[in-house]
Design brief:
Blueprint: E1 47-53, H1 56-64, E2 69-77, H2 86-90, E3 97-104, H3 111-120, E4 129-130, E5 133-134, E6 140-144, H4 147-166, E7 175-178, E8 183-184, H5 192-195
Parallel strand pairs: 6-7
Antiparallel strand pairs: 1-3, 1-6, 2-3, 2-8, 4-5
Length: 219
């Protein structure tokens, strides 16, 4: 019962698990599809974007399919517990959401185009869930790395809200915050749907087009 109450309520810093001062596992060296390193430092000229849009298995695939994306990795972000495990995050007592880190070349794909992929790949009005996946770890989130990203993310939210409202959807629940520490997930989660092509993918959008950017969001 204690853990269940955190499925639909974010823990405070005092309620969160204490975590640990170092990762529990090594990060995989290279992306299994793109072939580039997962960990930074990244080549000069590339930028980083962080998104939470439900189960990170399918979410990561949406982004690695986009032209101009150099690498992707999945992890935990937006919570209190340092270096959490997957089981701890799923218990709801760390405060993290499942996130995808996208490293991209802005000369090929813009941040606005990635925002379009983000909005169209999930339903951002569902609060602490995506479809049948229920819990705070499935909440919608954008964690920004610059004032320009913050401004673009907020503008895209407002534009999409107008379109969603016209289509009969409620208010967007996506949190848009400056990037908090990103803790990479266990190696078996990285590029999960490349390693397991028939694996579970809970990603599905509203079918409502986002009126920004030009990149498609087909999975």
């Amino acid at each position: 019962m204690f853990l269940n109450r955190f499925k639909n309520k974010l823990p405070t810093a005092e309620e969160a698990l204490p975590g640990r001062d170092r990762p529990q596992f090594p990060l995989s060296e290279r992306h299994t599809v793109l072939g580039n390193p997962l960990a930074g430092p990244y080549p000069e000229g590339l930028e980083v974007a962080d998104f939470g849009l439900g189960c990170f298995w399918g979410a990561e695939r949406r982004f690695w399919q986009q032209p101009g994306v150099w690498t992707t990795l999945v992890g935990y972000q937006g919570g209190h517990t340092p270096n959490p495990s997957y089981e701890e995050v799923c218990g709801g007592q760390t405060g993290h959401t499942e996130a995808v880190r996208v490293v991209f070349d802005p000369s090929v794909v813009s941040y606005e185009q990635l925002l379009k992929v983000f909005w169209e790949s999930h339903d951002p009005t569902q609060g602490f869930r995506q479809g049948n996946d229920i819990g705070t770890q499935y909440r919608s989130a954008i964690y920004t790395h610059s004032p320009a990203q913050q401004s673009a993310a907020t503008a895209s939210r407002d534009a999409y809200q107008s379109t969603l409202t016209s289509a009969g959807y409620g208010p967007i629940s996506t949190e848009i915050l400056p990037a908090t520490p990103f803790y990479p997930a266990e190696p078996y989660h990285q590029q999960y749907l490349d390693k397991n092509p028939a694996g579970y993918c809970g990603i599905g959008g509203t079918g409502v087009a986002c009126p920004i950017g030009v990149a498609p969001a087909d999975g």
